[in-house]
Design a protein that fits this description.
The protein is mainly beta. Among the domains are: about 60 residues, Laminin; about 45 residues, no CATH class; about 60 residues, no CATH class. It contains two helices and 33 strands. A hairpin with a 4-residue loop joins strand 9 and strand 10. The radius of gyration is 54 Å and the shape is rod-shaped. The N and C termini lie far apart (about 145 Å). The mean pLDDT is about 85. One of its GO terms (biological process) is Notch signaling pathway. GO terms for molecular function: calcium ion binding; Notch binding. This is EGF-like domain-containing protein.
Length: about 350
């Protein structure tokens, strides 16, 4: 400082930062705690602040902007004190929003492979499936592939149920009915079905499926199987050209029936339903004709209202239940005189 002389005295005028009689005491510039967020170091007429993390400025009173470096790669940054918080945009995660969320983690593609995107995914469907999640079965019948038939959709497939006279995967191939065994004298294949001229006096009907025996015709081959006599009667009634009725062969024409009809038929069950029922005791009759059948039975049983079928292997009558026995059906009708296709 500067000294001013007096009478037996002096006065010191101190330079900045000093105090005391002789200006030999440093003023504590940190006494007022100027460093808001930091430690103060006293100097001579000065002080120095050492800021805590996140603060800056002479007095450590300015928050450092931790978002200045744009740390949030895919999101918005919110500044803190020596920290920041990222609010990520859709599809991103992580401290700096730099990790893509795996949208395939939940296995959204039901029938296909998943490719992850940003807040999205793409499914590559396996054959037969469609839709965002490959969960919709493609209608393989939409293009109407079954030309002559009904289509049943599958998974990347379809099945055709062909109408009569057609075959093939798409029901577009005509069945050549003339290549199969039939009773036509002259057969001409049509699309579909076929034109058939019957062997005169031997067969009749649109498809020559009725064998002529005397004044009656019998179905060749025998019709499909059923498990009851009533059902057999109904099937015969529904056959072509006005139907027929359950067979009632007489003893006189039975040998001819056995050789001409049975020999040319394929029997699934090995038995034939005929219109034969037990009326009482050991009396058996053919339905409409009333002709009694009392011979060539396998066995007898005095049970009312039972039925009998003929065993094809040895032509013996077998007594069975009318409602629970499986046998092929022999149908008959009077000759119609219709021997060719229309």
């Amino acid at each position: 400082g500067a000294c001013t002389d007096g009478v037996n005295s002096y006065t010191c005028t101190c330079t900045a930062g000093w105090q005391g009689t002789n200006c030999d005491s440093n003023i504590n510039d940190c006494a007022a705690n100027p460093c808001v967020n930091g430690a103060c170091t006293d100097g001579v007429n000065s002080y120095t602040c050492t800021c805590t993390a996140g603060w800056q400025g002479t007095n450590c009173d300015s928050n450092i902007d931790d978002c200045a470096a744009n740390p949030c790669v895919n999101g918005a940054c919110t500044d803190g004190v020596n920290s920041y918080t990222c609010t990520c945009t859709a599809g991103w995660q992580g401290t700096n929003c730099d990790s893509n969320i795996d949208d395939c983690a939940a296995n959204p593609c039901v029938n296909g492979a998943c490719t992850d995107g940003v807040n999205s995914y793409t499914c590559t469907c396996t054959a037969g499936w469609q839709g965002t999640n490959c969960d919709s079965n493609i209608d393989d019948c939409a293009a109407n592939p079954c030309v002559n038939g009904a289509c049943t959709d599958g998974v990347n497939s379809y099945t055709c149920t062909c109408t009569a006279g057609w075959q093939g995967t798409n029901c577009d191939q005509d069945i050549n009915e003339c290549s199969a065994t039939n009773n036509c004298a002259v057969c001409q294949n049509l699309v579909p079905s076929y034109f058939c001229v019957c062997e005169i006096s031997s067969y009749e009907g649109i498809l020559c499926t009725w064998a002529v025996i005397g004044t009656t015709t019998y179905r060749v081959p025998a019709t499909t199987t059923t498990t009851s006599r009533i059902a057999a009667i109904a099937i015969c009634a529904g056959l072509d050209e006005g139907g027929g009725f359950l067979g009632e062969p007489l003893a006189a024409n039975l040998p001819t029936i056995l050789t001409k009809v049975v020999a040319r038929s394929t029997f699934v069950s090995g038995f034939m339903w005929l219109n034969v029922v037990r009326q009482s005791g050991s009396t058996w009759v053919y339905g409409a004709t009333g002709t009694v059948a009392t011979t060539n039975f396998e066995f007898e049983a005095n049970v009312l209202d039972n039925c009998a079928v003929m065993r094809v292997s040895d032509f013996k009558w077998i007594i069975v239940s009318c409602t629970s026995f499986t046998a092929d059906i022999l149908c008959q009708r009077a000759i119609t005189g219709k021997v060719v296709s229309p």
